[in-house]
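Researcher: Go.
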Amino acid sequence: MFSTQIESMGVTLIVFTLLAYSFALPISAGVLFAGQMGTMAAAAYVCALALLAGWPMPAAFVAGVVAALALAALLIKPALRLGELSMAIVTLGV
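Model: Structure:
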């Protein structure tokens, strides 16, 4: 039981560390892009639904990644046509 809790906290720490770096990299390049929150939420939601449906964990993770990529693909094309500030507002809306 103790190792399961440590493993769960480790996975959570890794996920939030990656999320923090995904904010830091675009900002260091001078671009404000906040779509990470929406894509992370979509991935977590799809992954949770897949796990509740009885899918194995690797398949659920792949489904979550595919959902995040699909949302990002739908978002990025129109957002790139806008100016920098408008792109930030659109991505915050997600």
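Model: The mean pLDDT is 76.
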